[in-house]
């Protein structure tokens, strides 16, 4: 056999061996974790920033003028309705009460005399012992003295009220602020601020919603008279407090384009204080069949969002999706996916290009909650 033919056969044999070696060294498909997309009922929530306010706030002012004799409370403490807070020097008002009582006694004595004289005048007029004019004068004096008694009774009642007002008591139960005036200072009626008092349980949380969220939440307000909301304070994890939506403003704010809402929340432990910031989570939409996907599976390419879908041949496909609000660790997929499709959630860094073969490992969605569980947090 010619030498050049032997060399050619050897080259072909060597090339075949190298091809077999390359084929044998090809890496196996990379394992990735996938979830199977399924439709389920879901309640979508949105987060808002709110401000805590007390349902009842009282600026306590003196109702009579006088010098402060006593400050009877500890600043910042809880008080009960009817507790004594301040006492104004009562001595001038006791004197006025005694004077009014004396004037009433005099007026009643004068009335008794006028009644006797008027009765006697009526008898004498019947026997024509006095003139009709004199009888009329005595009857007029009786009416005048009756009016004087009524005026004296009113003056006594007013004096007693003023004396009662020297003791400034809590009109509501709640937490009292600091004393704005101390013992020995003059308090002027209806002017001097003594202290402030706020109710503590329950509390209000006011927040504002944009028009889009308000439009989406209308269905809740027709189906449910008082929808539940979730509330969290600064420094707290999540939304541990449950409140009830009890007020919606009757018009949009024309300057901000927002609608004001108010939630009522129980405060037995005093965690809420007026003026605090609060985070509020309110239901905005009820979906019968929603596709919720772990947000780790959704990637971003500039302004577009996409996921990697594993087809029946275990090849990856890049799929653009339209997303909605996030719910816990999941995001709503409005379009781009169908129930039953498999989406990569872990191992995305292993996918180098669309169409790459992978070894899918089916897992459950992490952080998945049903609509009922979400609503009952």
Written account of the structure:
The model is unreliable at 1-17, 19-24 and 367-377 (pLDDT under 50). With 377 residues, the protein is of the alpha+beta class. The chain has helices at 3-25, 91-126, 132-165, 211-223, 371-375; strands at 30-36, 39-53, 57-61, 66-71, 78-79, 84-88, 167-169, 174-176, 186-187, 193-198, 203-210, 228-233, 241-248, 258-265, 277-294, 299-301, 304-310, 316-327, 330-335, 342-346, 358-362. The chain contains 5 helices and 21 strands. It is elongated, with a radius of gyration of 43 Å. The termini are far apart.
Major sheet, described briefly?
6 strands, antiparallel, barrel
What is the helix/strand order?
HEEEEEEHHEEEEEHEEEEEEEEEEH
Q: Could you estimate the helical fraction of the residues in percent?
A: 25-40%
Mean pLDDT: 83
Question: CATH topology of one domain, which one?
Answer: conserved putative lor/sdh protein from methanococcus maripaludis s2 fold
How many helices?
A: 5
The backbone outline, from C-alpha atoms, is: elongated
Q: How many beta-strand elements?
A: 21
Structural class: alpha+beta
Percentage of residues in strands: 35-45%
- The CATH class of one domain is Mainly Beta
> Low-confidence segments, ≥5 residues, pLDDT <50?
1-17, 19-24, 367-377
Q: Order of strands across the biggest sheet?
A: 2-11-14-13-12-15
Spatial extent as radius of gyration: 43 Å
């Amino acid at each position: 056999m010619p030498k050049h033919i032997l060399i050619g056969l050897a080259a072909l044999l060597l090339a075949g061996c190298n091809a077999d070696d390359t084929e044998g060294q090809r890496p196996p498909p990379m394992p990735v974790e996938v979830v199977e997309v399924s439709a389920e009922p879901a309640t979508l929530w949105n987060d808002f920033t709110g401000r805590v306010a007390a349902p009842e706030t009282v600026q306590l002012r003196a109702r009579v003028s006088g010098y402060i004799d006593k400050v009877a409370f500890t600043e910042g403490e809880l008080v009960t309705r009817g507790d004594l807070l301040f006492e104004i020097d009562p001595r001038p008002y006791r004197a006025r009460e005694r004077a009014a009582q004396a004037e009433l006694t005099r007026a009643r004595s004068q009335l008794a005399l006028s009644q006797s004289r008027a009765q006697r005048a009526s008898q004498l007029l019947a026997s024509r012992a006095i003139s009709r004019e004199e009888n009329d004068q005595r009857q007029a004096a009786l009416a005048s003295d009756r009016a004087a008694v009524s005026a004296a009774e009113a003056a006594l009642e007013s004096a007693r009220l003023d004396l009662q007002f020297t003791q400034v008591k809590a009109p509501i139960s709640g937490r009292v602020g600091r004393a704005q005036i101390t013992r020995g200072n003059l308090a002027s009626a209806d002017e001097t601020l003594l202290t402030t008092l706020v109710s503590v349980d329950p509390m209000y949380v006011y927040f504002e919603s944009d028009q889009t969220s308000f439009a989406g939440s209308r269905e809740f307000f027709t189906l449910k008279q008082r929808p539940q909301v979730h509330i969290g304070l600064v420094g707290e994890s999540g939304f541990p407090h449950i409140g009830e939506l009890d007020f919606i403003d009757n018009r949009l704010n024309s300057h901000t384009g927002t609608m004001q809402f108010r939630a009522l929340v129980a405060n037995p432990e005093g965690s809420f204080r007026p003026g605090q910031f609060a985070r509020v989570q309110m239901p905005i939409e009820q979906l019968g069949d929603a596709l919720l996907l772990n947000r780790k599976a959704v990637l971003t390419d500039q302004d577009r969002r996409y996921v990697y879908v594993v087809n029946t041949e275990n090849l990856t496909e890049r799929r653009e999706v339209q997303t909605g609000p996030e719910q816990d660790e999941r995001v709503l997929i409005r379009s781009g996916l169908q129930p039953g499709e498999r989406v990569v959630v872990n191992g995305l860094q292993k996918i180098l290009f669309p169409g790459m073969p992978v070894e899918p490992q089916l897992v459950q969605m992490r952080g998945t909650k049903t609509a009922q569980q979400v609503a009952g947090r």
